[in-house]
Amino acid sequence: MLRLILPLAGLAAALLLWAAGAAWLTQRMPVAADFAPLPSADALWQLVGGGDLWPHVWLSLKRVLVGLALAIAIGVPLGVLTGLSKRFAQGTTPLFQFLRMVSPLSWMPLAVMVLGVGDAPVYFLLAFAAVWPILLNTASGVAQLDPNWLLLARSLSATRRETVFRVVLPGITEHILTGVRLAIGIIWIVLVPAEMLGVSAGLGYFILDTRDRLAYSELMAAILLVGALGYALDYLARTAHARWLHR
Asked: Which of 75, 140, 148, 195 is the most exposed place for a label (fewest CB within 10 A)?
């Protein structure tokens, strides 16, 4: 019972602070009344029930899946190679650490110049943001593998391909899933600002549109939905990770 009461109490406290903050701001700026909990909840209900928001949601989720798939396709092989080859790790680690510290959003102008407007630059930004936790966690998993597993594979005349797919990847799945979970959180944070440039649909575009239309209650409703969807994605990632550990 306590595990249910405490989260609800935390949400209730946040709701009260939100309402109090909106009421205080309304005294100085009457337009702030649209940011209050009740107008925002009403706008969210209308948007969800009316279906105007769902096309933006599906498109944003599609971009997240594509960006995550690209990050996995790039990060896992590079992580395995980094963990298995000391020379490759020594030659690439400074570069990877340098690129990892560059904000993905700083690439937005270059991405649009090279890839044009549309989904392509968004995919690039999401993949760039998500690849690093996957790559680093994969490399860390390879480094922590029991060396006896690799020696056993060699003694059985396993090929390089067989060693990777039958020994290394099954042994580091937990680390890959941890990296994927971290990547999902990063992608979801980068998604909204990435969709504010050069696209005509998506949650980021919808938030900008509500600002331009001065529909502030809808803006807050979109922010609430972004938080709820992000929480749901993280919950799915945590569940997959927990099930793998149990298995």
From this structure: 148
